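Interim report to the steering committee. The following record documents the input for MBOAT family protein (472 residues).
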Amino acid sequence: MLFNSFEFLVFFPIVFIIYWLLNNDLQKQNILLLVSSYIFYAWWDWRFLSLIIVSSFIDYTAGSKIFHAKTERQSKNWLLISLIANLGLLGFFKYYNFFADSFSTMMTGFGWQPNDLTLNIILPVGISFYTFQTLSYTIDIYRKQFEPTKNMVSFFTYIAFFPQLVAGPIERASNLLPQIEKKRILKKEWFNEGLIQILVGLFRKIVIADTIGAYVDTVYSDVGIYNSTTIVVATFLYAFQIYFDFAGYSDIAIGTAKLMGFKFNQNFNLPYFSISLTEFWRKWHMSLSFWLRDYLYISLGGNRKGIKITYRNLMLTMLLGGLWHGSSWNFVIWGGIHGLILSIEKFIKTYQTSYLWKKFSFLGYPITFGVVLFSWIFFRAQDLNSAMLAIKKICQFNFSAPFIGDINLIITSALVLSLGIGFDFFLFRKKIDLENLAARFSILKVAVLASVIIVLINLFYSTSNNFIYFQF
């Protein structure tokens, strides 16, 4: 079920009304959330519900066993069971064909033609997100940073909670589980904030991302027939398509949760207004960035074992972070580019002269955006050959026919993009978080803003396009 679909427009109000009618019975509320979340997920394919239920049961059991283990060995064994079970399911469904195909290609290079090893596997929606979410629970218990819940319904609801089930934010148990296990109150200010954030999310998705995505999809479907300028423009637009698409999803998820009485962590904080790639990753997909930092980078040793090991850890973290996004060498290279630049930034920060750094620090904004823009080519291209062809075409500097394609679509994309960037710049200059925007507005301003957004959504809405991050 999509947030930007008619089905969700019917589904959510029904759940919302019944949910608050059950306000005097916390257990019934949580059961409703669990059942509703399973219905929400089953809308795609009910068969994959079994994976969520199996994963939830394994980690509910493992969390309890880890906490009550009498020895470190027993505790570690149960953590390994959790890791192997969850990463095993993720690895099979998401990466089996990637590694099988890579192995076949490598063997072909040595002169051996193996049989086709790939399988007809469907990638379950959201498996990357809820796998990381459930793993954080057992790892935190193992690290003695969190105590397991005794309520199975609460834990299963934590894993399957529908606002963030299929594309995040990746919520830690320490933040979400305590909220599930205590009475919620419908707060007027949260209702206003949540409603505005949902509408802004739909605006970002439907009006901006889907509009500019039409041009991006046309160009990147066959980069070989387009010139340098057209591919550069499409790549520039894609940078904002993926931002407004995923930030829009996060906005809807956070806003929906607020209407249900839950407070999610922020997932985007105007990442393109970043002076360094390090800052960019503190603002982009923050729940994943902090997950990779806390559970992978720090587990590898972080920056505690010398500068060379720090560079290694950064590269490994970003390479694996790239692979998390997709089973393709494109994503590995994308992660490698970010890992390399992050390492260079750490080197500069270590050996910089404060005078030069302060004098030329303003260059960090265009350089950071340029690096991110270049790396998006690998992220968006259909495969590695298409990515390399796009780069080759860009380097031909063919400006003879600046724009190939529908000029009207380019103009429309420019107009809606200017609205999105202008709104973000307003938030940046005023230092206002979108989560708290409604709280700073009067009722009249909230009503006007909501009306304008609703009108724009209706003008641009044509089809229920998937969110980009559903494929990950």
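The chain has two domains: 6-184, 189-471. The committee is asked to note this result when reviewing the revised timeline.
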